[in-house]
Amino acid sequence: MTESNPTRREARKRLAAIRDIPKIEGYRWASERYLRHLVFNAHDQRGSGGAKLAGNGFAPAIIRLGRKVLIDLDEFDAWIERHRATHRGEETL
Asked: What 8-state DSSP symbol labels residue 50?
């Protein structure tokens, strides 16, 4: 009988497919369309005039396995916190 390694268990990532995330409690606000938008705009791109368009910083949360796109939920949470920190203090009208 083998013993489970606690450090290995802690290192396990919480992964979910884009279509499954809106069904997870705590992520119901994130629509599939919104998540696909984040994935599409995650990396830097070039505009039609050749100008560099900065990505949204979501790339560390994306894991691609062939055509399958998985989201690391821990990294997604960290991205939300980073995004919140950059906009803290701004008021919406």
From this structure: S
